[in-house]
Amino acid sequence: MSKTIxxxxxxxxxxxxxxxLSTSEKPKQLLSLFSEKSMIRETVDRxxxxxxxxxxxxxxxxxxxxGIKEQLQMLPEDNIIIEPxxxxxxxxxxYGAAFINHRFExxxxxxxxxxxxxxxxxxxxxxxxxxVEEARNEGTIVTLGLKPQRPETGYGxxxxxxxxxxxxxxxxxxxxxxxxxDTAKAYMEDGNFLWNSGMFLFxxxxxxxxxxxxxxxxxxxxxxxxxxxxxxxxxEALSEATKPFFDEFExxxxxxxxxxxxxxxxxxxxxxxxxDIGSYTAFEDVMEKNKNGSIIRKASVxxxxxxKNIVYLEDDEVAxxxxxxxxxxxxxxxxxxxxKDHNNDI
Length: 346
Prior knowledge:
Elements: E1 5-10, H1 39-47, E2 56-61, H2 62-71, E3 80-83, H3 88-103, E4 108-113, E5 117-118, H4 121-138, E6 141-146, E7 157-160, E8 170-176, H5 181-190, E9 193-203, H6 204-214, H7 216-229, H8 235-246, H9 254-259, E10 265-270, E11 274-275, H10 283-286, E12 295-304, E13 310-321, E14 326-331, E15 334-339
Parallel strand pairs: 1-2, 1-4, 2-3, 6-10, 12-13, 13-14
Antiparallel strand pairs: 4-9, 5-11, 6-9, 7-8, 7-9, 8-10, 14-15
Helix pairs in contact: 3-6, 3-7, 6-7, 7-8
């Protein structure tokens, strides 16, 4: 049984909710929103104490590959896996697992997002170690379930068998779609419902077996792609060669394709200071507010009768008078002004 641990960091998202800071060439994961480092660099640095650079892989697309290589020069260039088309996470994880398996056969694989914040890194790494041991020894697929901090309608939930011990593996009863507010409140009061983090751990043979069982077409297409992977193709050359096969993938998430069907799913309830930074209003969860309850980044702001705004202006100066609950963002000549309630319409 393999003792090798690899990571697959998913970095193909467009980050459209962070326009105008985010563009197709420089999406959210390549932005330095909360420190001097980009979010993807923060993600890699977070797991380097556990996984060496040569065993960390990035799944992305041709538009973003150049920026990722520039940001992550500590990784081997061939560890950047370029998908020729976006076909959602089932195809991305299957493709990434097949590529990594060619290099590290039978490895345990940790699948992470490239644009999440984790404040408690020590606990996070401890939970990953627990999950890897579970996946390796029991042949299960482990997901991280986050203790809800509020009734949240923007996340999917996992109902667990027992959430009484944080950091301990427990059974999954069911996956739940994004709820309305009253349902989310009931979930929180119940105590055994967790936010679905989208982070998974499994051995590559396990995920391939489950894909063959529940996603026969994906497994068939990946079998054809694997014939190209074993020739040694990488990067853009592999992406170009696999493009006709990607057209055959159904566009479906790994949650719908496998997680909600498999009987091998486990969850670890945890509190790791997590935030998926899904929109500008997430700044309010992780950044310090001024005396007016506003968050100001990279700007000089004068406020009169103004409160609870989010302002990001890249060294510009602005005056806000009688303004409340607004998002004001300027980048490279593009300006966004919207009410917080319409934040998700961006």
